Amino acid sequence: MGPLQGIKVIEIAGIGPGPFCAMMLADMGADVIRIDRKDPSGRGGTTAGGNARFDVLNRGRRSLALDLKNPEAIETVLKLCETADVITEGFRPGVMERLGLGPDEVMKRNPKIIYGRMTGWGQEGPYAPVAGHDINYIALSGVLHCLGREDSKPVPPMNLVGDFGGGGMMLAFGIACALIEANKSGKGQVIDTAMVDGAALLMAPMYGMQAMGRWDGDKRGVNILDTGAHFYEVYETGDGKYVSIGSIEPQFYKLLVEKSGIDASEFQDQHNKDKWRGYKATLEKVFKTKTRDEWCAIMEYTDICFAPVLSMNEVHEHPHNAERGTFIEVNGLRQPGPAPRFSRTKPVVKRPPPLPGEHNEEALGDYGFSASDIEKLKASGAI
Fold first, then answer.
1. Do both 187 and 260 map to the same domain?
2. Strand duo 31-37 + 8-12: pairing
3. Is there a catalytic annotation at residue 133?
4. Which of 18, 65, 100, 222 is the S-S candidate for 14 at Cβ 3.0 to 4.6 Å?
5. Mean pLDDT by 10 residues, the chain (383 residues)
């Protein structure tokens, strides 16, 4: 059940990229214990600002609620780490050390453990100690400057590039790499995952194109993949909806011209940037002559490189997503399913997002804590 079955992960609860990484590990079969903050009221808090059951990023794992200001709680985490394979955290540099849970303390208990750190700016550098969010990390990495249309200000792509692509996924990849290395060396190590680094890495092909003179790094909305080109663009249809076109290769471009019904003789010079504005204006008019569904009937399932632009309320109904099971339901909550796919060790979502502290006794028991140990932790206020 998932390629990471048997891997034990301790996740120090945070927001955004840290939970996304832990979700990916849990989806792949890892046994993830999430260390949530203990709510002094005893009711349990949430990280979503509402019902914890809707916190999809927390799916697939168990929750242990601890008061990390309590020395007994700190000792509990250290004991958990003694038999764990991985620990992840997403605090500012130095916070875990002040808690007594830094890499040195944890690795004294378990030299083979992988210590995954997630920050925006990294563990060192002038920005390291200051706060930030996705929009700031992608700004400093050069990503945000590239996003948007010509003669407009940059447009943040939600928090997909910094938090999740450049952050959570990078940490998950780093953990997978470190686990493989630890099996060879018998030693753990610390992973410094910075969202600014990860976001910059995602721009690698653009730096290559810039070096070849095929990408203007000072402008946005004028390049082949940033809405500058008429053949890589989103077009509004007659019913106010949208379709996406990605006809980069010449054979796909030829098919676009044919299926859209425009005069092929006027659209021959595909890569002449001086003609892109005029070509795009023509296509804008053409796509408004039919509804999205009508264009789907003409272009869908062809090699144009076409897809309708679907809303979050539509995606699960599309035949392709439905057949692949791209979206699943867990406890009645629709959400994206685990990815990628595996032929043998197929990942599944093992459980819905937990309530903080929901698995206190179960999780501690599985890690070797006796009933009397757990009662002592309760009495001390650690859990």
1. no
2. parallel
3. yes
4. 18
5. 96 96 98 89 49 93 97 98 98 97 98 98 98 98 97 97 98 98 98 98 98 97 97 98 98 98 94 96 98 98 98 98 97 96 96 96 97 97 96
Rounded to 10°, the helix 169-185/195-202 angle is: 100
163 is catalytic: yes
Torsion of CA 281, 287, 289, 295, to 10 degrees: 170
Packed helices 250-260 and 273-287: angle between N→C axes, nearest 10 degrees: 40
Residue 49 DSSP class: S
Helix (H) or strand (E) holding 242, with range, is strand 242-246
pLDDT at residue 112, rounded to an integer: 98
Give all strands of the β-sheet with 306-308 in edge-to-edge order.
Answer: 232-236, 242-246, 306-308
Residues 240 and 237: their CA atoms lie apart, in Å, by 6
What residues have CB less than 8 Å from 356, skipping those under 6 apart?
Answer: 36, 37, 38, 39, 44, 45, 46, 52, 63, 65
Q: What is the predicted pLDDT for the residue at 22?
A: 98
Q: Which of 39, 133, 145, 216 is catalytic?
A: 133
Rounded CA gap, 366 and 50, in Å?
29
Tokens of 251: 């054979």
Q: Is residue 209 part of a domain?
A: no
Q: Are 164 and 103 found together in one domain? A: yes
What pLDDT does 49 receive? 56
**Distance of alpha carbon 374 from alpha carbon 344, whole angstroms:** 38
Q: Which of 31, 36, 163, 226 is catalytic?
A: 163
Q: Which domain holds residue 172?
A: 8-202+327-380
